[in-house]
Specification:
Blueprint: H1 2-21, H2 36-46, H3 54-67, H4 71-79, E1 81-86, E2 92-98, E3 108-113, H5 114-146
Antiparallel strand pairs: 1-2, 2-3
Helix pairs in contact: 1-2, 1-5, 2-3, 3-5
């Protein structure tokens, strides 16, 4: 899952760096969003801003919306501490814990079985491939215009 998120973040970063260099997007702050949620929001925002990326953003926005439900999962995978427990059948259960506490004083826990993790990974992979492909096409179009 982390590899999938890294793949899509790489593609997002290329588009956001390109957007930051265009005069039409100079008013967008921060120029380079840091967190994944901020980057996804910036992609959505490009759809509403007048500029050369607007038409591309229309095709990207629905995929960004499909990726958004996976943000918490990515957070757990990247920042959580994992424990592996075994069911009586021997099947592993992955328990991710985040050590920060929420406003109500409780920590966060995510529990995944292997089939659940595989199912989420498969759903995420399809969305990531489609989104990365669209983002790469934006950058390929940019390269072709320069030549």
């Amino acid at each position: 899952m982390i590899d999938l998120f890294a793949q899509v973040e790489y593609a997002i970063n290329a588009v956001l760096v390109h957007a930051a260099a265009l005069p039409e997007y100079k008013t967008l702050k921060p120029a380079f969003p840091r967190l994944l949620g901020q980057k996804l929001e910036r992609l959505r925002q490009l759809k509403t801003e007048a500029g050369p990326l607007r038409s591309h953003a229309n095709g990207v926005a629905p995929l960004v919306d499909k990726l958004a439900p996976f943000e918490d999962l990515r957070h757990f995978m990247a920042h959580g501490i994992v424990e592996v427990a075994l069911k009586q059948s021997g099947e592993p259960i992955y328990v991710f814990r985040i050590s920060c506490t929420s406003s109500d004083g409780t920590g966060s826990t995510l529990t995944l079985t292997r089939p659940d993790a595989q199912s989420r990974t498969a759903r995420l992979a399809g969305t990531v491939r489609a989104l990365a492909s669209k983002l790469d096409a934006i950058m390929d179009g940019k390269k072709n215009r320069r030549n």
